[in-house]
């Protein structure tokens, strides 16, 4: 009885912290899903009308390279769309070097004057956010990079400082790992550092509900992992990390590089930061429309026949806490799609066991296709990926 009350208090506190963090902060400074995999599944073309959850906006810009008719970037947290707007303003302004300094290196020597030139291009809410936070791009600050701000950036900062300063050998080997060119090299290096990576501090940090709240992992997802994975949360994260660092080539894995070093490089960066893509991005920037709303609210207010929905892993969030909201979202997706519309989801769980029967019969899944692509994902922290096509 006392144990149960204690557990309820801990759970309640985690939910409260999660909500407080999400109502006040920028959470994601990098999209944590691999668009190289997505674009093989989505097959975007000039007729595509895409709905995607914004997160940090990186993948919206990646999809823009396929020149779809429109991309609706939807996020319930307006700070995430403020981030996408800052990227779009830089792209529309037309100076690639400025874009790369800000979002490739995470800092700009003249960030204040550059921002002064950009701010009139931003909607009011984005301007209000960046008026307060533009010093995230101050290379002289103690963190030296935008990629260590926002709540997921703050966790990356703590972990990367710990790993890079704990032991010189570990530091050298981590940089060797980032520079490795073959899987054999990666495996040999990883075998020498794995025990040090999972020292007491890292294991403790990963188990903290506050860490997970700051990384944007809500309790339903933690529950899914801890109940479905034999080693619990630490076992899950360490197995996923081992896979992505030893079975997927790292030389263009910009996801892990940016959190370890605070910056991308010219060769290891998202497509929206490649000079050869800049002209196309600039020409297509007007096709992005942002919406500060839930997916359901967006669809109620903007009915249509959308061709693609990229839902990231947010249905894990709904499945446990808000089954009515999950049902409503699927009703609206199916009403606002057309036969052949594609829906892409990821989950912490190895299977999508939360979908209602009526959804499963309204769509067709392609498990062979997604199961073959999932292990190649450079993020590597999800349990599964799913493509549903509307019948
Ligand atoms: C689901 S989270 C997960 C992060 C993700 N895996 C990524 O790529 O970074 C991505 C974004 O979805 C937003 N979000 C969560 N539930 C939402 C909903 N029902 N409608 C709209 N946005 C939502 C969050 O604010 C967050 O910025």
CATH topology tier name of the domain at 34-76 and 293-391: Rossmann fold
Reading the helices and strands in chain order gives HHEHEHHHHHHHHHHHHHEHEHHEHEHE
Biggest sheet strand line-up: 3-2-1-4-5-7-6
Query: What is the highest CATH level, the class of the domain at 34-76 and 293-391?
Result: Alpha Beta
Name given to the CATH homologous superfamily of the domain at 34-76 and 293-391: Vaccinia Virus protein VP39
User: What is the straight-line distance between the termini?
Assistant: 49 Å
Describe this structure in words.
The chain has 391 residues and is of the alpha/beta class. Among the domains are: 142 residues, Vaccinia Virus protein VP39 (Rossmann fold, 3-Layer(aba) Sandwich); 116 residues, no CATH class. Helix content is 57%, strand content 11%. The protein is built from 21 helices and seven strands. Strands 3-2-1-4-5-7-6 form a seven-stranded mixed beta sheet. β1, α3 and β2 form a beta-alpha-beta unit. α4 crosses α7, α9 runs antiparallel to α10 and α13 packs across α18. The radius of gyration is 21 Å and the shape is globular. The termini are far apart. The structure holds S-adenosylmethionine (SAM). The site of S-adenosylmethionine (SAM) has 19 residues, from β2 and α18. The site of S-adenosylmethionine has 19 residues, from β2 and α18.
């Amino acid at each position: 009885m006392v144990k149960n009350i204690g557990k309820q208090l801990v759970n309640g506190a985690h939910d409260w912290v999660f909500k407080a963090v999400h109502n006040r902060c920028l959470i994601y400074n990098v999209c944590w899903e691999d668009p190289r995999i997505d674009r093989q599944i989505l097959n975007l073309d000039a007729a595509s009308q895409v709905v995607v959850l914004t997160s940090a906006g990186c993948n919206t810009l990646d999809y823009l390279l396929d020149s779809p008719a429109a991309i609706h970037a939807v996020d319930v947290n307006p700070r995430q769309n403020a981030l996408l707007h800052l990227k779009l303003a830089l792209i529309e302004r037309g100076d690639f070097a400025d874009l790369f300094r800000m979002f490739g290196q995470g800092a700009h020597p003249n960030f204040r004057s550059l921002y002064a030139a950009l701010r009139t291009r931003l909607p009011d809410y984005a301007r209000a956010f960046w008026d307060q936070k533009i010093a995230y791009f101050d290379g002289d600050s103690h963190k030296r990079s935008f990629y260590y701000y926002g709540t997921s950036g703050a966790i990356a900062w703590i972990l990367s400082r710990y790993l890079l300063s704990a032991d010189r050998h570990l530091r050298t080997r981590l940089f060797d790992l980032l520079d490795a060119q073959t899987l054999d090299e990666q495996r040999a290096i990883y075998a020498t550092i794995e025990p040090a990576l999972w020292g007491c501090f890292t294991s403790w940090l990963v188990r903290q509900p506050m860490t997970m709240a700051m990384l944007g992992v809500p309790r339903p997802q933690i529950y899914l992992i801890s109940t479905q994975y034999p080693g619990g949360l630490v076992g899950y994260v360490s197995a996923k990390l081992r896979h992505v660092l030893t079975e997927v080539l790292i030389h263009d894995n910009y996801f892990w590089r940016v959190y370890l070093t605070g910056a991308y490089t010219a060769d290891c960066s998202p497509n929206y930061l490649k000079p050869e893509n800049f002209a196309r991005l600039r020409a297509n920037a007007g096709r992005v429309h942002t919406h500060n709303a839930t997916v359901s609210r967006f669809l109620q207010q903007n009915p249509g026949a959308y061709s693609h929905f990229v839902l990231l892993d947010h249905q894990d969030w709904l499945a446990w806490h808000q089954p009515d909201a999950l049902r409503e979202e699927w009703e609206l997706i199916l009403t606002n799609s057309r036969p052949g519309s594609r829906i892409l989801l990821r989950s912490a769980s190895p299977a999508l066991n939360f979908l209602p029967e009526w959804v499963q019969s309204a769509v067709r899944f392609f498990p062979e296709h997604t199961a073959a692509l999932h292990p190649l994902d450079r993020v590597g922290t999800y349990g599964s990926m799913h493509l549903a096509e509307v019948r």
